[in-house]
Amino acid sequence: MGVTLDLTRAAAAAAPAALNLSGLARPELAAALIEAEVVRPEKARMRAGQLWRWIHHYGVTDFAAMTDVAKETRAALAEHFVLARPEVVERQVSRDGTRKWLIRMGPGIEVETVYIPDVGRAGALCVSSQVGCTLNCTFCHTGTQALVRNLTAAEIVAQVQVARDDLSEWPSPKEDRRLSNIVFMGMGEPLYNLDNVAGAIDIIADNEGIAISRRRITVSTSGVVPELGPLGTRTQAMLAISLHATNDALREQLVPLNKKYPLAELMAGIRAYPGLSNARRVTFEYVMLKGVNDSPAEARALVQLLKGIPAKVNLIPFNPWPGSTYACSDWGTIEAFAAILNRAGYASPIRTPRGRDILAACGQLKSESEKVRASARRAAKA
Ligand code: SAH
Ligand code: SF4
């Protein structure tokens, strides 16, 4: 019996994916151009600057649109590199205007990104840093999804680009933006992927591109203490801490990472966060779980814990998800908790749940992506 081999498909499968330029920092962009021999080394910086504006200020996805770049250079760029956006698999819009995109970064690699209007200066984009999460906070939907992998800087930037495409915010507007703030509060623990998070922030904050100031970029962590200093030094981003409890016994139940980095260590790490001041306060996130962490005594304990730290508290009503075992505190209980914090001088807004109808609220994000075991991959190929 004869077998016909489809060599064209085999060759395509074997070809390495072309490099996406939108995840490269400026020096990397210049180096990539030199390496591909698209420009002469002495012209690389200038050419990289020109490309940077096209990619990050104008948001183009096609080299052909770069009208001030010579035709032959554009052709050479297209031969070596790509600028394409990842595929948006699903787009949902909530009754309250919140938008959620399910973005496919590669086969089986899907993440969710959420735009929330009227948060921050104009509107905030909640980006994911990992597919799934290694941590298992017991109230979090993402925590039920095993880590598939870290996102690259390009994939983090791509989430901003996709949102901007949808909000028609190219070229990058100076005023009247709808997307004014970025929060790393989507899927994953950003401090377990600091290199790529820091690389993405360098790109997002660059003045000649997306130009979202570092003061409007917040990184939320469940408390990876050794990475707090490096986060501050490398990114100058605003810090948010998912606290949720005021004693180790309870925090261990809610945020198991507390066993590794208990409260005393965490609070010391926060106090040492570079750039902390009254103008640049830490946000403490505190999810309100009925009968678990919402008593007046716990509010008072929180005040004690925060003493001397320039801080504000974000009270997050618990958002349920399929299979969750907690309930959200009653509204009156949340208000009483907030009043104790307010009286002690801490701003403590209650975060209105947004996008609950499309499972876009805090802690509800999850994708179907699963880590495929090497054995299963081999079996599928056979
Ligand atoms: N991994 C990071 C960032 C993502 S989670 C972190 O844990 O900080 C963003 C915020 O949503 C965190 O404060 C998290 O504790 C909170 N959260 C998770 N599940 C939630 C839920 N079901 N309801 C409300 N908030 C939740
Ligand atoms: Fe991971 Fe944050 Fe969810 Fe905890 S709350 S499981 S760290 S995404």
Estimate the mean pLDDT confidence: 89
Hetero compounds: S-adenosyl-L-homocysteine, iron/sulfur cluster
Share in β-strands = 15-25%
CATH secondary-structure class of the largest domain = Alpha Beta
Number of separate strands: 13
Oligomer: single chain
The value of Rg in angstroms is: 23 Å
Could you walk me through the main structural features you see in this protein, from its secondary elements to its overall organization?
Strand 4 and strand 5 form a beta hairpin. With 382 residues, this protein is an alpha/beta fold. The chain has twelve helices and 13 strands. The protein folds into two domains: 69 residues, DNA polymerase, domain 1 (Orthogonal Bundle); 295 residues, Aldolase class I (TIM Barrel, Alpha-Beta Barrel), CATH 3.20.20.70. It is elongated. The longest helix is centred in the N-terminal third of the chain and has 14 residues. Bound molecules: S-adenosyl-L-homocysteine and iron/sulfur cluster. The site of S-adenosyl-L-homocysteine has 16 residues, from strand 10 and strand 12.
In short:
By secondary structure, the protein is an alpha/beta fold. The protein has twelve helices and 13 strands. The two termini are 19 Å apart.
Describe the secondary-structure layout.
Blueprint: H1 7-14, E1 19-20, H2 26-35, H3 44-57, H4 71-80, E2 81-82, E3 87-93, E4 99-106, E5 109-117, E6 123-126, E7 130-131, E8 149-150, H5 153-166, E9 181-184, H6 194-205, E10 217-221, H7 228-235, E11 238-242, H8 248-254, H9 263-271, E12 282-288, H10 296-306, E13 311-317, H11 331-343, H12 374-381
Parallel strand pairs: 1-2, 6-9, 9-10, 10-11, 11-12, 12-13
Antiparallel strand pairs: 3-4, 4-5, 5-6, 7-8
Helix pairs in contact: 2-3, 5-6, 6-7, 10-11
The chain binds S-adenosyl-L-homocysteine and iron/sulfur cluster.
Residues 133, 135-137, 140, 142-143, 188-189, 222, 242 line the site of iron/sulfur cluster.
